[in-house]
């Protein structure tokens, strides 16, 4: 099957088995412009990465370079630029009152998931329209959908799910960078940026599934 046909099949299985609140989103990081798939136009506004995920979850497809990313921390997490120094040091989050002192803020930010390699751009698409093999698929769902996906992972691993998140850099670091780096699956409860700017609802959470793990998750969904 073509990538599009496979993605359409996977999307249908997800919709039939998981309580989705919107479309699953496929993303692919591009090392150069030459890797850009046909049929994807440059987004015509400057917004946050998490807003781009939300747009794709509502049916839009497009690509972005660093020039269209308005959140520098998000762009840094997904490999489009270096992380801004004040974010990397924890100073920014300490100034926002998220940590009791700068030392604690630095300790937390050093553990955030950040893609170290530099990429030229990133493609966003609803999974059922993606003509490429995704690096990561992001699923926005209610907790009951997260439960079902957790059960699919446990089904073949026999191990507990161990989410990695801190309530900051959610759709960028937790849901994209973490699965991309680990080749696994990660669960995240969102952050202020994604809930305010990208309208992630109070009753929604996000799961990021690496392209390497996607076939196994889909197979397990059908089995349980």
Automatic annotation (TrEMBL):
Q: Which InterPro entries match?
A: DUF169
Q: Name one Pfam family in it.
A: DUF169
Q: What is this protein called?
A: DUF169 domain-containing protein
Please name the source species: Methanobrevibacter smithii (strain ATCC 35061 / DSM 861 / OCM 144 / PS)
Upper lineage: Archaea, Methanobacteriati, Methanobacteriota, Methanomada group, Methanobacteria
